[in-house]
């Protein structure tokens, strides 16, 4: 697990990189803070200062990779050195799929990914709700999830997002341990038809995993649920944010119709780990 000092050093480096490059890095902080092992994080120190970091994040059979290097320490091979170490860990732990994520506006990241032979898969937008008056909503009930809902949550990930069952089950099990998070189930006519997760941190409320069974989509339920959640979090004084993939055009239009605007974007690339020494 990462020490308090290491976490602080990573945060300082992240802020410096974001400020210098005018972008936003996605380091999955809720996972960094709850690490149970030190085998997934790679840190490079010089004179007791963190100058490079790379993290591997486990989502079932999928490993997600993201990292950064201090602006004045770049082009010295540090990131490539850490990535080579990370590849060995990924291979040894038996991940079936590897995704590398980088800010869409980072030319340096795209150059590195191109040299690695990674192939572009999709873009994920971070969206920020623009304060406005939203109508009240009804026709559904939101309740906190219980352990009995795990199978439905996994089913929703599979049917709504196309997530492999192994990854969905690992992800949903991990979410239950998050602090300051509400996992809510959507009920219509006594039937559980969807879910949504709301995580609050430092004055921000983030909406994740918003999904509804395909047979209940297109009926206005999603828009009504979204309005209710946004109104509640806004009244509590939180700014409201979410993430959505570009390829999910229906969800993108839904969020835009309620007042969300894309402010940052992360590109995801798939990388093939060689399984032999050749």
Structural overview:
This protein is of the alpha+beta class. Helix content is 34%, strand content 34%. It contains 8 helices and 11 strands. The chain has an 11-stranded mixed β-sheet with strand order 1-2-3-4-11-5-10-9-8-7-6, sandwiched between helices. The mean pLDDT is 91.
Q: Describe the largest sheet.
A: 11 strands, mixed
Give the CA-CA distance, first to last residue.
Answer: 33 Å
Written as H for each helix and E for each strand, in order along the chain, the element string is HHEEEHEHEEHHEEEHEHE
Structural class assignment: alpha+beta
Which regions contain 5 or more consecutive residues with pLDDT less than 50?
none
Gross morphology is globular
Q: Tally the helices.
A: 8
Helix content: 25-40%
Sheet with most strands: strand arrangement: 1-2-3-4-11-5-10-9-8-7-6
Explain briefly what this protein structure is.
The chain has 278 residues and is α+β, with helices and mostly antiparallel strands.
Fold topology:
Elements (H helix, E strand, L loop, with lengths): L3 H18 L7 H4 L8 E6 L2 E11 L2 E8 L8 H15 L4 E7 L3 H10 L2 E11 L11 E4 L5 H12 L3 H11 L5 E8 L2 E11 L2 E9 L8 H15 L3 E7 L3 H10 L1 E12 L7
List keywords for this structure.
single chain; 278 residues; alpha+beta; 8 helices
